[in-house]
């Protein structure tokens, strides 16, 4: 995992799990006292918003053990074999959607919350072409579906949409403000 600025170098790792690590450290407070701070460092991830040659957005309906069915962008954890977040996004697009693209744009990075540290990199892949079958992990059931831009924005009101914490404000703003609508549409489609 990449170092994260919200975890000091002197922090002690108190838990080393499969998908996260827990760090604790003594933090000087403004009044001169010291408090014990803690932060969870989750695996980094990469997700992609695929735009097909027909101008539709391609998303997934997924099922995974111990989770309710959800809607998601193709993506997931960055594996040790991935040389970069972009390579992870390309791998995930091929695995979860059977698709490739030659037009990639870095969209944004989510870097965690007050008590969690992670990097989740988001990319837009334009002119995607489906070249093969979906190849999900053993713990994934994936079904693909296409939607237009307005249907994508409407996901901000769908509780099954998995990316609320990152994309919800962006989608809501575009639904409520014409300038934000036009801006997001240009970012996604490049025109």
Tell me the CATH topology of the largest domain: Nucleoside Triphosphate Pyrophosphohydrolase
- Helical fraction equals 10-25%
Pattern of helices and strands:
EEEEEEEHEEEEHHH
Euclidean distance between termini CA atoms: 35 Å
| SSE class | alpha+beta
Q: Average pLDDT across residues?
A: 95
CATH superfamily placement of the largest domain: Nucleoside Triphosphate Pyrophosphohydrolase
Kindly list the characteristics that best describe this protein:
single chain; 191 residues; alpha+beta; Nucleoside Triphosphate Pyrophosphohydrolase; eight-stranded mixed sheet; 4 helices; globular
Fold topology:
Layout (H helix, E strand, L loop, with lengths): L11 E5 L3 E9 L5 E9 L2 E8 L4 E7 L6 E3 L2 E3 L7 H13 L1 E2 L2 E11 L2 E15 L10 E7 L1 H6 L9 H13 L1 H12 L2
Parallel strand pairs: 3-10, 4-10
Antiparallel strand pairs: 1-2, 2-3, 4-7, 5-6, 5-11, 8-10, 9-10
Helix pairs in contact: 3-4
Task: Explain this structure.
- The chain folds into two domains: 12-41, no CATH class; 43-189, Nucleoside Triphosphate Pyrophosphohydrolase (Alpha-Beta Complex).
- Strand 2 and strand 3 (34-42) form a beta hairpin.
- The chain has helices spanning 85-97, 149-154, 164-176, 178-189, and strands at residues 12-16, 20-28, 34-42, 45-52, 57-63, 70-72, 75-77, 99-100, 103-113, 116-130, 141-147.
- Helix 3 crosses helix 4 (178-189).
- The radius of gyration is 19 Å and the shape is globular.
- The longest helix has 13 residues, at 85-97.
- By secondary structure, the protein is α+β, with helices and mostly antiparallel strands.
- The two termini are 35 Å apart.
- The strands form two sheets. Strands 1, 2, 3, 4, 7, 8, 9 and 10 form an eight-stranded mixed beta sheet that branches. Strands 6-5-11 form a three-stranded antiparallel beta sheet.
- Helices cover 23% and strands 41% of the residues.
């Amino acid at each position: 995992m990449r170092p994260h600025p919200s975890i000091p170098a002197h922090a002690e790792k108190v838990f080393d799990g499969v998908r996260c690590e827990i760090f604790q450290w003594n933090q000087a407070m403004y009044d001169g006292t010291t408090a014990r701070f803690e932060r969870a460092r989750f695996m980094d991830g990469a997700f992609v918003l695929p735009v097909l040659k027909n101008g539709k957005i391609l998303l997934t309906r997924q099922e995974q053990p111990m989770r309710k069915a959800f809607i998601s962008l193709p993506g997931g954890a960055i594996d040790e074999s991935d040389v970069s977040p972009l390579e992870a996004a390309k791998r995930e697009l091929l695995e979860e959607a059977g698709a490739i693209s030659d037009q990639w744009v870095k969209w944004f990075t989510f870097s965690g919350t007050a008590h969690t540290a992670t990097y989740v990199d988001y990319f837009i892949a334009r002119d995607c072409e489906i070249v093969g079958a979906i190849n999900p992990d053993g713990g994934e059931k994936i079904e693909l579906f296409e939607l237009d831009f307005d249907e994508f924005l409407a996901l901000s009101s769908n509780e099954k949409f998995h990316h609320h914490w990152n994309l919800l404000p962006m989608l809501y703003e575009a639904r409520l403000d014409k300038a934000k609508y036009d801006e997001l549409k240009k970012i996604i489609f490049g025109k």
